[in-house]
Design brief:
- The complex is a heterodimer of chains A (410) and B (157).
- Helix content of chain A is 23%, strand content 30%.
- Chain A has three domains: 174 residues, FAD/NAD(P)-binding domain; 114 residues, FAD/NAD(P)-binding domain (3-Layer(bba) Sandwich); 76 residues, no CATH class.
- In chain A, the strands form seven sheets. Chain A has a five-stranded parallel β-sheet with strand order 3-2-1-7-19. In chain A, strands 9-16-10-11-12 form a five-stranded parallel β-sheet. A five-stranded antiparallel β-sheet of chain A has the order 22-23-26-25-24, sandwiched between helices.
- With 410 residues, chain A is α/β, with parallel strands linked by helices.
- Chain A is globular.
- Chain B has one domain: 2-Layer Sandwich (Alpha-Beta Plaits), CATH 3.30.70.
- Classes of the chains: A alpha/beta (410), B alpha+beta (157).
- At the A-B interface, helix 7, strand 22, strand 23, helix 8 and helix 10 of A face strand 2, helix 2, helix 3, strand 6 and helix 5 of B.
Chain lengths: 410, 157
């Protein structure tokens, strides 16, 4: 039996380890198209900030780990999947047979549809290679424009600031991190950034980038053109499914999977950022977040070795550090119709909590400036715990979520 | 069989000796704010509940760590943060549904209970035996672990 995994990110690596833990005999092969040891994109901001070296981004630090696990590694790109013959066409011209296949190809940055995004000194911040490009260009005093104040944009801001650049952030949405923060929190983060000396333009689009004598010119809508030595594009990502066009694998927003992480094609599974699976609170979606990448990978791997495991759906959860201001969001932080909402803002301490309820269940929340016990929000949401009297306490003071958790332990 | 912290809230008087001991063990100062075990006070019911990491058999925090910085101590079974590897990304703090992994701003790292290498300072300090270090099967936290298995997440079943 040969298990082949395409993608060497967290999902691929965790799947390989899980396969090996439950199947001593089969061949396990991990394919990735980037050079060097498997690494975590999550760690790139800390590399940019010079807080770690490249080794610090590695997913596994023991350099003999995969060898000892008897996990083979192949550095190449998969060009196509033929599900009928159960083969992969590889970029090096060869084909590879599999018995069971896991697609964990992750996602890639999306370019905004504007002129000039392919110019030199316009980079994504996604791979280690991108990080090296940014490190070369982001010198003290250089003018850097960050396109997009989403998760990735915000998380690399501190690194750019530590490098001493003059930073401008341009975000099309009306606030910062619009997909994980509400108006109040998004604006607090914006003010926090402005107070740290960063220029922030929300509700602003860059319409065109053109080369100039002294750097790049960025045309904005609305606003005057601005100059930059480096542009970092962080306007979103999308699943890597291009190589599956002719494969028969059903694609929605990502590779469609069932609760066992099986695709529409026999013996082909998917996990991590590339898959579109059930959302924990109903419906389907792509949940491109680290905790769900590893959880879906484990479910996929267990099923690949014949141990039935089900994933009950992915809960959205994010934690973000924007220049030291820490924000967290969970689940349905935007609320549901007829559900109660409680929020508390302490502008002096920079703390904000918003909780969303459906009946006496917690279904989502946002915190800002809080680092203690935030995980309990996940516990309260995913245990579907009846809050009882704690619903009233939390409506009065939503910061007491950890007490609600401790107090309602069954 | 690993030993575990067993917590009996009924015996807790809210004296906070455990928090002091924990803070001193790790930080060298008596400051409850630095403790990895917390006593929650429910004044209206006159109840005190000490609470810390359950060292889940199949740990959310460990699985979620993107840089392999959470390891299992072979002797105690504790899930320990390797500070030299932790980059401070905080993903473990939102992945742990018990709320017992916290980010420390000053260090730029996350902190959690590691059972003090097998001789937990909180249990030693507790004057009423509300916190004891006992054989795993016996721990009051077994109930919570059982709950953990039901947290609508079959990967941890």
């Amino acid at each position: 039996m040969r298990h082949v995994i395409v993608g060497r990110g967290p999902a691929g690596v965790v799947a390989a380890e899980t396969l090996r833990a439950h199947d001593r005999a089969s061949e396990v092969l991990l394919i990735g198209d980037e050079p060097g040891p498997a690494y975590s994109r999550m760690a790139i901001p800390y590399l940019l900030a010079r807080q770690i070296r490249e080794e610090g981004t590695w997913l596994r630090h023991d350099t003999t780990h995969f060898e000892r696990q008897r996990v083979g590694q192949l550095e190449t790109r998969v060009e196509a999947l033929n599900a009928e013959s159960k083969t992969l066409a590889l970029a090096n011209g060869t084909t590879l047979d599999y018995d069971r296949l896991l697609l964990a190809t992750g996602s890639s940055p999306v370019d905004p549809p504007i002129e000039g995004v392919d110019l030199p000194r316009v980079h994504h911040c996604w791979t280690l290679e991108d990080a090296h490009h940014i490190m070369e260009s982001a010198e003290a005093g250089s003018r850097v424009v960050l396109m997009g104040a989403g998760f990735i944009g915000c998380i690399i801001m501190e690194a750019l600031k530590l490098r001493g650049v003059r930073l401008t952030v341009v975000e099309a949405g009306d606030r910062m991190v619009p997909r994980m923060m509400d108006q109040v929190a998004g604006n607090l983060i914006k003010q926090w950034c402005i107070d740290q000396g960063i220029e922030v333009c929300t509700s602003t689009r860059i319409t065109r980038i053109e080369p100039g004598d002294e750097g790049l010119w960025l045309h904005c809508e609305p606003g005057e053109p601005m100059q930059a030595d480096l542009v970092v594009v962080a306007t979103g990502v999308r699943p890597n499914v291009g190589f599956l066009q002719e494969s028969g694998v059903e694609i929605g927003n990502g590779i469609r999977v069932d609760a066992h992480q099986r695709s529409s094609v026999d013996d082909v599974y998917a996990a991590g950022d590339v898959c579109e699976g059930a959302s924990w609170q109903g419906g389907r979606g792509v949940h491109a977040i680290q905790p769900m990448a590893v959880e879906t990978a484990r479910v996929a791997a267990l099923n690949m070795v014949g141990r039935e495991a089900t994933h009950v759906g992915s809960l959205d959860m994010n934690v973000l550090d924007t220049l030291g201001l820490i924000s967290v969001s969970y689940g349905q932080w935007m609320g549901v119709e007829g559900g109660d909402s409680a929020s508390l803002l302490d502008e002096r301490s920079g703390r904000y909590v918003k909780l969303r309820f459906d009946g006496d269940h917690l279904i989502g929340g946002i915190t800002l400036g809080i680092t203690e016990h935030v995980g309990a929000l996940r516990g309260l949401i995913q245990s579907r715990r009846h809050l009882g009297v704690w619903k009233k306490h939390l409506m009065e003071n939503p910061t007491r979520f950890m007490e609600a958790w401790v107090s309602t332990v069954p | 069989m690993y030993r575990s912290l067993s917590i009996d809230p009924d015996k807790c008087t809210g004296c906070l000796q455990c928090e002091m001991a924990c803070s001193y063990e790790y930080e060298g100062v008596f400051n409850p704010a630095h403790s990895r075990i917390k006593v929650f006070t429910f004044h209206q019911e006159g109840r005190f509940v000490p609470y810390t990491c359950t060292q889940c058999a199949d740990a959310w925090c460990q699985h979620a760590c993107p840089v392999d910085a959470i390891r299992v101590d072979a002797e105690t079974g504790a899930k320990e943060i390797k500070e030299n590897l932790c980059v401070g990304c905080k993903v473990c703090t939102i992945a742990c549904p018990f709320g017992t992994v916290n980010y420390n701003h000053d260090r730029g790292k996350v902190l959690k209970c590691d059972l003090c290498g097998g001789d937990p300072a909180c249990a030693r300090a507790c004057p009423t035996q509300a916190i004891t270090y006992v054989d795993g099967d016996w721990a009051g936290y077994e109930k919570m672990r059982a709950w953990a298995a039901r947290t609508d997440n079959a990967t941890h079943a």
